[in-house]
Amino acid sequence: MSATATSYDDVVARYAPVIGLETHVELGTVSKMFCGCSTRFGAEPNTQVCPVCLGLPGALPVANASAIEATILIGLALNCSIASWCRFARKNYFYPDMPKNFQISQYDEPLCTDGWVDVHLDGSVHRIEIERVHLEEDTGKSLHVGGATGRIHGATHSLVDYNRAGIPLVEVVTKPVPGTGARAPEVARAYVTELRDILRALGVSDVRMEQGSLRCDVNTSLSPVDSDAWGTRSETKNVNSLRSVERAVRSEMIRQAAVLDAGQRVIQETRHFHENSGESTSGRSKEEATDYRYFPEPDLVPLAPDAGWIEQLRATLPELPSARRRRLQGDWNVSDSEMDAVHNAGALDLIEATVAAGASAEDARRWWLGDLSRRANEAGVELGELAVTPSQVVQLAGLVAAGRVNDKLARQALSGVLAGEGDPEQVVLARGLEVVSDAGALGIAVDAAIAAAPDIAAKVRAGKVAAAGALVGAVMKATRGQADAQLVRELVLARLDQG
Ligand SMILES: [Zn+2]
Prior knowledge:
single chain, Arc Repressor Mutant, subunit A, 14 strands, alpha+beta, 19% strand
């Protein structure tokens, strides 16, 4: 479908979005969900398989207790109720990377239900309600070979790797989230970020989006702003970075608005997100639950975690990200919205490490949220991917504090650090970036500036001290910004009898 170009502002003026997120988390257990096979990432294809995870006849599954514990921990951290009794279910569908032709999952009896998580944006709080957290097994991985794109279209043949089949997978499903308006894409991103941070704090997964251990499906629908009914939703799959969660919601809102504007209806379907273009393309039309012929898994006993076990697990919960942020906010003495800015820039760990390495909280925030954020944005990477360490930021701040470089020179030194020229100290020496505060050397430049602008010099002599700024500027320019500006000012005023 060719969509007419519609601006995002125009879309949100006329349509209200409802979003929903389904996040799959590969647990970091040593062995798979229903057998003893290793879960190690990156092994030779089909070397971590056995009769159970290959679905060979007669093989029987046994549930992995560590995976159940991890799922309960996730549920508790997301403020869910934990079922005292629940069952696994078979979800029947044919897919070549699923050797049993069904997936053991949970259907109407999930382990955790009805939770919530708060996400913070610019000082405002959005509560995201969690519908369910359930446990299932991952599928294998198909590799389509011979085509240009790596997708099935145009491929000559496909290969399947079952190493991933049977790895424990937790699915966290939100309730629909209405009311976020123009901020829907940012709220979606902030939610996935918060969820990732919670999972990381729990230590239950390595949450590497780029390796697929955290995968997001993003549901989006639009309805006219004056309508009470929600629109038909689409589900965008393959969203493999935090940045893409935001992009996927935004591009889907624009696409659906164009469909609705053309008087057509949005189709309930699965769409595939393409990292490079930021666009999605239509996949299959979305199945209904009845298509899967769910029934209770007959090969596994029900799960019945007793209250004592759940309370034991609750007692082991670590400090969660929201509590940690409150603690750091107090330590750093910053406002709610300043703290949200730190969090949403992905700078929390970096600033904490920079403060721990010796910088003031103010310097650490100024560097990471200022110049470094700008450079990360320009390069289209996350802050943590920049080639600079917290201890190098401490050095930079130290050079400024000692007056050896000014802000402008410090930014040049940072460019050198990012270009791999070494630590800030080495870059400053190698590039000759130090502030010149030798009165003798600067005196020559001051005399030259005065000689070049006799009319300005005369004004200063007559008492118009403000005019001295132009002479200071001329000296700074002549010294390529390396002069000690305060000293230059003193020298200019002294030369013109105003010192
Ligand atoms: Zn196995």
